[in-house]
Write a structure and sequence with these properties.
The protein is an alpha+beta fold and 77 residues long. It has one domain. It has 1 helix and 3 strands. A 3-stranded antiparallel sheet has the order 2-1-3. It is globular.
């Protein structure tokens, strides 16, 4: 399964920068693993960026993601 990170923006929208990163199970979807709807045109990143972004990842998305894609030595280059 390929996951994707997608940005949630604050009250100023895209111009205000990323508020939180959410994890989606599909690049074509809009529902984050936590249940929040994320804009389809929001900035997206590879799942390999999980834990490496300048803004925090959603804690609930991260927890669920780790259950589906556990980290093992060498997985994240």
């Amino acid at each position: 399964m390929t996951h994707q990170l997608r940005a949630e923006y604050g009250p100023r929208g895209r111009s205000g920068g990323v508020k939180t990163w959410h994890v989606l199970r599909s690049a074509s979807g809009t529902e984050a693993m936590c249940g929040r709807t994320v804009d389809a045109d929001a900035e997206a990143r590879s799942e390999t960026e999980w834990g490496r972004t300048e803004r925090p990842c959603c804690q609930q998305c991260g927890s669920l993601y780790l259950h589906e894609a556990p980290l093992t030595p060498g997985d994240r280059g």
